[in-house]
Amino acid sequence: MKHTIQVLVENKFGVLARIASLFSARGYNIDSLAVGETQDPTISCMTIVVNAEDERVLEQIKKQLHKLIDVITVVDLTRKDYIDRELILLKIYNKKPAKDMVEELVKNYPVEILDKNEEYFILQVCAEHNDLENIFKEIKKIGIKELIRTGKIAIAK
Amino acid sequence: MKGAKIFVESLIKENVEVIFGYPGGAVLPIFDFLYDAPIKFILTRHEQGAAHAADGYARSTGKVGVCIATSGPGATNLTTGIATAYMDSVPMVAFTGQVKTSLIGNDAFQEADVTGITRSITKHNYLIKDVKELAPTIKEAFYLARTGRPGPVLVDIPVDVQLHDTEFNYPYDISLRSYRPTYFGHRGQIKKALKLIYSAKRPVIIAGGGVIISEGARELFQFAERFSIPVATTLMGLGAFPSTHPLYLGMPGMHGTVYANMAITESDLLISVGCRFDDRVTGRVDAFAPQAKIIHIDIDPTSISKNIKVDIPIVGDAKNILGQLLEEIDRKKILNISSWLKRIKEFKKKHPLKYKKGVGGIKPQYVVEELYLQTKGRAIVATEVGQNQMWAAQFYKIDSPRHFLSSGGLGTMGYGFPASIGAKVGNPTAVVLDIAGDGSIQMNIQELATISTYDIGVKIIILNNSYLGMVRQWQELFYNRRYSATSLKNPDFVKIAQGYKVKGMRIKKANEVKKAVKELLSYKGPVLADFWVEEEENVFPMVPAGEAINRMIGGMA
Fold this sequence. Notes:
The complex is a heterodimer. Chain A is of the alpha+beta class. Chain A has four helices and nine strands; from the N terminus they run βαββαββαββαββ. In chain A, the strands form two sheets. In chain A, strands 5, 6, 7, 8 and 9 form a five-stranded antiparallel β-sheet that branches. In chain A, strands 2-3-1-4 form a four-stranded antiparallel β-sheet, covered by helices on one side. Chain B is of the alpha/beta class. Chain B has three domains: 161 residues, Thiamin diphosphate (ThDP)-binding fold, Pyr/PP domains (Rossmann fold), CATH 3.40.50; 164 residues, TPP-binding domain (Rossmann fold); 169 residues, Thiamin diphosphate (ThDP)-binding fold, Pyr/PP domains (Rossmann fold), CATH 3.40.50. Helices cover 36% and strands 15% of the residues of chain B. In chain B, helix 4 links the parallel strand 3 and strand 4. The termini of chain B are far apart. The chains are: A alpha+beta, B alpha/beta.
């Protein structure tokens, strides 16, 4: 089962490497990882989506994370009410029928056109994980030149 | 003040009395200040030896062990010793030199990404890029190494940082928002544990290294005696409970006693104190203590329900929690477990630890027994890894904490000899033995130069069977006696010792053992004694890997 874990860490050199090597050394899988500074510049927030086959593995992941000296808190958001977002940036060829479909997308979904030229559109899609997956399915039909996706970030209600 | 001087002053503030290490280009400024510092420096002949010596010093004294090496190969040579300390929760601070900060990442001469390499084998590590960070980091390193679940901490110091100047201010105290170990057990859990204990019919305690680390042996003794609960100690826990006590069950697990394994298998309540349920202890997990409720006391939350699912976890320091349990015990409560104790007594009588006493050839167990008798069980015993380690654990009955030094978690051959050096330096009046095999001793044999140079009076006992004995044993039992790469053509160990100006002895006959042990113990100064033991002697009892611990071979008849 997928779990969204929010980890507050000291904003120090090498912390990401510590987290990454913990996961690889202990054989845990990371689905996605997003890192950024918080309102306090000495603290970074990592949102980690992990796939844990059972409760015991999940418990171990959380405890092992917490054991790292630079980790301040570990919260499993999956057990809480939270809002999450992921972002996709992509280029779509600017030609028919894609052109019309882009307009459709913008009308129906949280899709924004950030830039366009003769050759392509640059779109931004920002949505909650499951919605994003659905929109992604739609977009795939159009034909994608390039696509970049962030990991999930989340905040507890 | 220069970084290198700050380094020395910081170590003085930490009351470091000895450093084990090896110099090199990237630590030259530090060594220049060590030259006339009031800290003893022991030059080992290999950095691995320095790390193990610091480890042996730490385990035997309870203080933080310190080692130092240069960048690149110096640092990578330390890593086996660091990993060994990490697996066994040994407080250690390892310092390494690093290339100049401006060269880091350039594949400079003797450069290695040491913080990267040691990330998963240290409790924490640091690369210092600014001399202002040096003193606070050293403070933090020592603090982390010895608090909570102890472990090795590495501090990587680029050579230019050692030369830069700053003001020296050693911090008084320390507070890390991200590091708050739990020292006392949750009151509710203590109460729940006691409730289970009161209703137990067949209780057993397993004590691990955590009891020794937390200095909780006395509390364990009081607690066990209060209810007459039998106590098994893991390899790391040897000495946490007196081996000569009637409630003592010996060691559980792969080469444990039959009665410890039977007791655990039949018990209805297992109280684990400072033990992390290593696979060598549990054997097949689903057959481990199948009828028991389990109380698990451990300072490291990750140890709980990692290998064995437990019923009542209590996170905290073993000594404190045992103290809390003792405090909360209802004075009127007694356990009605006389039939259980009787059954255990029968197990013990029926399946004692024993070996076939031979005629002619020397039994390795006999050598260990003789060492035990003649040192009155008071020596500090370091072991290598393999058969020598298990025979030492089985037949040298350790009665007090910090007297048995062995690489339990990592199983590092070559650990014992340098560890014994550290132990002797930390305990100059103690008798310190290294019980070794002919394979293991050659992994750090260069340290004969160290004991010779500083006249460190450790006694090296080689149980020489011309094999990598434990691997050979497995090959005999599970690989059709195909002794692939385990037969050793050994050097003349006596001559090797003499070459290093260390007293060497060779013992070939059983009837010479007593006298030889007497001689090596009464000799002032270091001795290497090469006992030619029976080549194909096995360590029994034995639980085959992955089997249930009550399915033992040997020792059941």
